């Protein structure tokens, strides 16, 4: 891709508006099992737990939560979910062969993605969630643009398999790897007829992006979501970001969720609740910008506005492994109740 084309994606005029002529439908309540990863449940125990919280969708964001890609096992999990009136979404990790997160020992990216596409077909999942990498990839020699090209190539190579399985690929803006405009570029490079977005509300802050900008950019491509609240505030070096329970942050998450429900009707509003300690983004130090040279000023100013009005929020106390599992469930449950009340869902 040419540099001029890449930069054009960051202009305010390039931000698309979601067009939907059909009647709006409420979003579905989803739970991403990464929220309670320390519980180490079986897939059937995960489904039972989510059923108690009246989840419409259970998002198996990693293969480890499913337990196995063996078709007989996947069908057994799918049949159990159907009895609970739960829809499944299947996911995996990095599909970018040049990312630090890619596991080459598991086969080529095409091989790994093809296996999960087949599992999604068996499970009745309409999508496979995957991602590029992390913020570390932004400072690699090929830059995030090179990783985007490599990921788009992998996606094009599996297009026929995905289309034949009637499965779309939902790429997440993950762990600070891509801003919304960059994921939009990846989707369009790969083919928006079979590739869309898993829109994460917490990860934009790890790319110094206002999550509302991310949503505005990616809503037309939205297939599913990861919903998480955040707190951000100013420091002498830049800003600190913390992920918090839903409703305890300062990024106007209520507005974000309502906007997602309006722009992505019928999709899953999926709780991926991760409560963390502080992470600093020292953008006042020159070397920080090595991975962000192409960030448009108008976009960064939206992030700065959040920083300027943000207030410090205290983090969680240290926890043992046993305490961690319990705390994850408590964080998820409090956040789920909050969103159910916000959207008028039956608790």
Chart the SSEs and their pairings.
Layout: H1 3-8, E1 28-32, H2 43-52, E2 57-60, H3 63-66, H4 71-83, E3 87-94, H5 109-123, E4 127-131, H6 143-157, H7 159-165, E5 168-172, H8 180-190, E6 195-200, H9 211-218, E7 222-226, E8 229-235, E9 238-244, H10 253-263, E10 268-271, E11 279-281, H11 297-309, H12 321-343
Parallel strand pairs: 1-2, 1-10, 2-3, 3-4, 4-5, 5-6, 6-7
Antiparallel strand pairs: 8-9, 9-11
Quick summary:
This protein has twelve helices and eleven strands.
Mean pLDDT: 93
CATH topology of one domain: TIM Barrel
Summarize the amount of helix as a percent range: 25-40%
Q: Return the string of H and E elements.
A: HEHEHHEHEHHEHEHEEEHEEHH
Mind telling me the C-alpha Rg? 19 Å
Instruction: Quickly give the CATH architecture of one domain.
Output: Alpha-Beta Barrel
Judged by helices, strands and strand pairing, the structural class is alpha/beta
Report the CATH superfamily of one domain. Answer: Divalent-metal-dependent TIM barrel enzymes
Strand content: 15-25%
Which regions have little confidence, pLDDT < 50, spanning 5+ residues? 1-23
Properties at a glance:
TIM Barrel, 17% strand, alpha/beta, 12 helices, disordered N terminus, 11 strands, 39% helix, 347 residues
Describe this structure in words.
This protein is α/β, with parallel strands linked by helices. It has helices spanning 3-8, 43-52, 63-66, 71-83, 109-123, 143-157, 159-165, 180-190, 211-218, 253-263, 297-309, 321-343; strands spanning 28-32, 57-60, 87-94, 127-131, 168-172, 195-200, 222-226, 229-235, 238-244, 268-271, 279-281. It has a domain at 25-228 and 266-272 and 320-343: Divalent-metal-dependent TIM barrel enzymes (TIM Barrel, Alpha-Beta Barrel). Strand 5 (168-172), helix 8 (180-190) and strand 6 form a beta-alpha-beta unit. The protein is globular.
């Amino acid at each position: 891709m040419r540099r001029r084309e890449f930069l054009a994606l960051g202009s305010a005029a390039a931000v698309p508006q979601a067009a939907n002529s059909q009647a709006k439908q409420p979003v579905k309540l989803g739970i991403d099992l990464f929220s309670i990863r320390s519980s180490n449940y079986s897939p059937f125990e995960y489904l039972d737990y989510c059923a108690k919280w009246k989840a419409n969708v259970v998002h198996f964001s990693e293969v480890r939560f499913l337990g196995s890609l063996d078709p007989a096992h996947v069908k057994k999990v799918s049949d159990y979910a159907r009895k609970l009136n739960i829809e499944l979404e299947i996911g995996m990790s990095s599909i970018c062969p040049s990312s630090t997160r890619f596991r080459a020992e598991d086969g080529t990216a095409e091989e790994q993605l093809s296996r999960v596409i087949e599992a999604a077909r068996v499970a009745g999942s309409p999508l496979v969630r995957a991602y590029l990498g992390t913020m570390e990839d932004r400072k690699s020699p090929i830059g995030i643009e090179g990783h985007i090209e490599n990921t788009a190539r992998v996606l094009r190579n599996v297009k026929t398999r995905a289309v034949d399985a009637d499965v779309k690929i939902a790429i997440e803006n993950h762990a600070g790897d891509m801003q919304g405009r960059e994921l939009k570029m990846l989707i369009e490079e790969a083919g928006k007829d079979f590739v869309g977005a898993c829109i994460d509300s917490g990860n934009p802050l790890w790319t110094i992006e206002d999550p509302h900008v991310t949503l505005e950019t990616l809503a037309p491509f939205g297939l599913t979501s990861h919903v998480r609240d955040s707190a951000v505030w100013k420091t002498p070096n830049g800003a600190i970001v913390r992920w918090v329970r839903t409703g305890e942050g300062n990024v106007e998450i209520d507005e974000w969720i309502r906007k997602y429900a309006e722009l992505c009707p019928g999709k899953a509003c999926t709780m991926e609740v991760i409560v963390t300690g502080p992470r600093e983004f020292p953008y006042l130090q020159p070397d920080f910008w090595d991975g962000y040279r192409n960030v448009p000023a108008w976009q960064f100013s939206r992030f700065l506005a959040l920083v300027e009005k943000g207030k410090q929020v205290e983090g969680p106390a240290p926890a043992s492994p046993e305490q961690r599992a319990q705390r994850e469930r408590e964080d998820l449950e409090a956040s789920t109740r909050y969103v159910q009340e916000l959207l008028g869902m039956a608790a």
